[in-house]
């Protein structure tokens, strides 16, 4: 059974940093093509944060709201993905999820099409206080 497990959430003050991890156990089809981090705050829609191609180039894509503050990466040789978050703001408070697309490498518009991602983790909570 395909599985993604997030870790690393917590509570920080504004300006602080957190590192989220997503450990993948995906065996369906030919594995992960695009790995995304998404977030959802109470009462708000799910929002794409960052994407990374799971190939030799590991091209990345970011939402405008996190550019320059968040970095998505993958441990080479391991099925673990990371989201390094710095200069956190109260607006970053949300449940963060990693998700996998098993069919297509990432495109910018995937940030808005979360329903194309077929494997999801259970989420990890991030709280940023002012």
Summarize the helices and strands and which ones pair or pack.
Blueprint (H helix, E strand, L loop, with lengths): L2 E5 L2 E4 L4 E8 L8 E7 L6 E7 L6 E3 L7 E5 L5 E6 L8 E8 L17 E2 L3 E6 L1
Parallel strand pairs: 2-11
Antiparallel strand pairs: 1-3, 3-8, 4-5, 4-9, 5-6, 7-8, 9-10, 9-11
Structure write-up:
This protein is mainly beta and 130 residues long. It has strands at residues 3-7, 10-13, 18-25, 34-40, 47-53, 60-62, 70-74, 80-85, 94-101, 119-120, 124-129. Strand 7 (70-74) and strand 8 (80-85) form a beta hairpin. It is globular and about 45 Å long. The model has no long low-confidence stretch (mean pLDDT 95).
Main pleated-sheet profile = 7 strands, mixed
Shape estimate: globular
N-C termini distance? 40 Å
Put simply, the count of helices is 0
Total number of strands:
11
H/E topology pattern: EEEEEEEEEEE
* Radius of gyration, taken over Cα atoms and rounded to an integer in Å: 14 Å
Low-pLDDT parts are none
- The fraction of residues assigned to DSSP E strands is over 45%
Concise summary:
The protein is mainly β and 130 residues long. It has strands at residues 3-7, 10-13, 18-25, 34-40, 47-53, 60-62, 70-74, 80-85, 94-101, 119-120, 124-129.
What key phrases describe this protein's structure?
130 residues, mainly beta, seven-stranded mixed beta sheet, four-stranded antiparallel beta sheet, globular
């Amino acid at each position: 059974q395909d599985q993604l497990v997030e870790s690393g959430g917590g509570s920080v003050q504004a300006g602080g940093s957190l590192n989220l991890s997503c450990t993948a156990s995906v065996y369906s089809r030919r594995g992960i093509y695009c790995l995304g981090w998404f977030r959802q705050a109470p009462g708000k829609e799910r929002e794409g944060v960052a994407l990374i191609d799971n190939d030799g180039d590991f091209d990345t894509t970011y939402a405008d709201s996190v550019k320059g503050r968040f970095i998505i990466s993958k441990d080479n040789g391991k099925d673990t993905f990371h989201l390094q978050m710095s200069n956190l703001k109260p607006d970053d408070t949300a449940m963060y999820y990693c998700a996998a697309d098993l069919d297509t490498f990432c495109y910018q518009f995937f940030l808005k099409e979360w329903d194309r991602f077929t494997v999801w983790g259970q989420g990890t909570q991030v709280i940023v206080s002012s």
